[in-house]
Amino acid sequence: MYAVTAAPGTDRPVRPIGPPELARLQRRTSRVLMAGQVLGGLGVPISIALAPVLATEVSGTEALSGVASTAAVIGTAVVSLPLAALMNARGRRPGLVLAYLIGAAGAGLVVLAATIKSFPLLLLGMAAFGAASSANLQARFAAADLAAPDHRARAISVVVWASTIGAVLGPNLSAPASRSFAGTAIPETAGPFVWAAAVFLLTGTLIGVLLRPDPLLTARALAAPEEQSREGRSLRAGIAAVKASPRARLALLTVAVSHTTMVSIMVMTPMDLSHHGAELELIGLVISGHIAGMFAFSPVMGWLADRLGRLSVIGLAAGLLSVAALLAGTAGPSHGRSALGLFLLGLGWSAGMVSGSALLTDSVPQPARAAVQGLSDLTMNAAAGLGGAAAGLIMSGAGYGWLNAVGAALLLPMAALALFTARRHPVPAKGVVSS
Predict the structure, then answer these.
(1) Any residues with CB less than 8 A from the CB of 208 and at least 6 apart, and which?
(2) CB–CB of 28/84 below 8 Å?
(3) Residues 404, 325: contact at Cβ < 8 Å?
(4) How far apart are CA 369 and CA 380, in angstroms?
């Protein structure tokens, strides 16, 4: 028999439950998180597609067009640790709700900045807007809180898959969202941010009302007595847990490298396609195929990670990303080759993100998981921010081919560490390290 938590904010068990009820609770939690991902995943891309245009309008120069998107990435990274700290103390629900509220407030600041033409306020708003992206990322770990160890990767992958709807629809809704404010005091390019603020408020309300009982607090109540220590929940304890576990270090590296390689190559691909004569419609199709690779096949990656093991799928991620870099970097005027490369780039990201996230959850004690997961998202987004900035320099100085070569080179330490870990620290059945 197991126990379920009492009111939000406490770990005190109030009544016993058995495996069937626990399974029903996990399914309900997954459905709520998926609904949140559909909404939250819609709010980010509906606005971020016009962020460079809005930055150009407000600043008056194209030279600063990419700074707004960078501010959002920085905001996503910066909020990761405070969000993890709040989840450590109060559970997943308060952390996710607060992140969506901050994202909504950030969208409001962006609208105000566009109206009064204040570039510093725009950057502040975009940084706060990034909190919603952090919530979308943290939701995948919430899905794993109550999952059985040999189903964790699938639980994570289903929530990642739910992002497909927003990721595909969002950019296509940007134009009508802009036109909805034609003739008003709000600039049309800021219109999508008004809708994003409403979406984030709706998402926060949905999570706040329906994500009960809190999955993290419930998981703690179900944990063995020796795993319920509050001392093990601090960031310092999380860092110590990563240092103590070779598999946790590999997981952290996998998530960071997969994300950085994907972002660095992806952000420069439209420019390379345009250099080789591709029209905007074709560029859009290539990016849509890339997004499909990222999200649509994540349940397959989750199933593979649970069946074949986390390390096997990390190896698959390294292989897919390497082939993607080879195809994209040598495509030249062959747009079909570029499209295939970008699709495989998304597929490799999916394999690395799902298997790395599952392995990270497996590899650290239950009390330290929330802190370690926040540390993972901070590392991932900080590395990707640096990678995206460096990609422009490499592209302008050496070309798109060399950019892909550098992206492939980033995978070498990940692949080497995966091989070393597989030989020196073999994983028990189905890739599960601990429950």
Answers:
(1) 93, 97
(2) no
(3) yes
(4) 16
